[in-house]
Every structure is written in C-alpha cells, then in structure tokens.
Amino acid sequence: MQTPQDIPDTPTDTISQPEDTPVPIDTPTTDVGLQDVPESHDIWDDTLVPDPPDASPNPPEIVADVSPESDSLMAPELPMDSSDNGPAADSEPLDPATEPLFRIDQLTWAAPDLCYVPTDNPNAPCVPLTNLVNALIEGMINDEQDPTDVLFQFHGAIDVAGAIDVTLGEGICERNDVGEIVHCQWQDKPEKPAVTFQNVPITTYGTCTDTVDIPSPCFKTPKKNGVVLSVADVSIGLKHAFAAGQFQSKNPQAFIESGHLQGFMPKTLAQTIQFNLPTGEPLTLAQLLSQVTTVEVDGHPGWTLEFKFNASQNSTL
Description:
About 5% of the residues lie in helices and about 35% in strands.
C-alpha cells in the first residue's frame, strides 16, 4: 500500500517461547521502497513540519501531520479506554513475547460505499465500486511478486492489562519458496514512515472503543495524524485516525481479529487522490464519494473512512 496525513499515525513477532522468557529482539532492516504514487496523485505536503520523535523502544520514524492546517483540524477526541485490572477474559493465554509483530493479511474498505457517475452522463445511476476496490486491495496484500506488507508492532506485552506503544505502517516480509512468511521487519528508509501511537491501553476485561464494541482482550489506539494505507495502488492518508482489534490465541500463533481502522479524509485532499480503475477514465476519491454526505471537522468538509482488518502474528524483529 502507499499514503496523506493527519490520520490513522495504514506495525509484530513469534510465539514459541515459554511465557516466563521474553524473546530477544533482533533488528535487521532491509531497504525496500513502497509502491510509488505518481506525483500528480501525491497526498503529501512539502510544507509539513515533522512531529517530535516518539520515545518508544525501537520506534520507526513518525509521520508528520498530513496538511499544514492539521493543528486546526482536530476532531473531538473519543474517550480512550483505560487499562482495566478486572478479571481476565475467558480465552487462551496470549504469547508473552516482548514486542509482538503482526502482519495484516485481510483488509477491506468498509465505509462509506464507493461509486461513480460517468462524466458523460451525469444523470446515470451511480455505479458501485466498493467490491472492485476491495478486490484490488486483496490482490495487493496477496501478490506473489510484490505483496504489500502492513504491520502492527506492540512495544510491550499484550497478555496483561496496561499501556504500551503501538507502531503501524508498511514493512517487508521475507517468504520461503512456497510463499510462507518466515520473517517481517520495518523498512530501513521507507518513503512513507510508520506511525507510532503512544500509551495504547491493552484491555483484558470488558470491551474496547465507544464506536465499535470489540471484546477483550483488545486494544484501541488514541487518534493520530499521518496514518497511510495503500488502496488500489494509491496512498490514502487519514487524519485523526485510530485502530482497534481483539487478540486471539490459536497455538502456536496469535491473531488480531475484528480489527477496525478509521480516520477523517478532508474533501480538499480527496480531490487530489486519483484512482486508475477499469472504468474508462481516471477518478478522484472525491468523485467516488460524491454520493455520500460530507461531515465537517472544525469547518472542513470531508468523509470518515472505515476499514476492517485481520492480522497474524509473525516472527519477532
């Protein structure tokens, strides 16, 4: 996948060690670029000033806000789930690896629906395109030659209640001769740096999020700008983005299920993001959302974009 800003700031490990022995973490890196987006489709603003670096262990570079007015475009923050020390959920214990790494193996555009009206026939019905875009996303994630590897890394234990940093972004995964992933890591100098959410609550009792009920054990990040997802070979940057999901243990692997990723897309930014779909003409994201009512964030019209995902734990860095 690829990138704008002020969103979810579109990364995890092995499970085979005993619970009382954290797995040491190697940090080899590989310089692998992300999919390029044509300059005319670029969602990044040259005037941006990067955020100060996070202090989390081994965090990748942090993406700055997507647009110069990002400070004035802050949406009301959703209440953050606090750590809960209530009784543990009735589920298998999760792997106690010190910094679990997960790769997103299923990602879908959930809302709002995408469609387009042919420019030569503005009175024609809007042609649905959500299923087509999701098919392209699936192809990107599972491509045999150049797959898109979106990673979550939790900088701390995920089997106990507490607050840890979580990194999300595109990395690179090594595969064996039959296509099985054997190792994942962050890119050395990514074109679109990963984003680290700080002080993310790990909840072991109750639910996470106040917009989507996700059962524990689970996590929900605070909002952050700069999260970038690659969608149909186009970088989608989100403002005020957050991610949430439920942890599941299915020995010898852990998973994130019921994943939810959400952020705000300003209309002015959507007008610059162009898709090359098999529709006979290039279309901007704003055109694909033209039938959807906009919402306003501090006076800026746009749309709230929602994605669903599942992820599988992979080897530690």
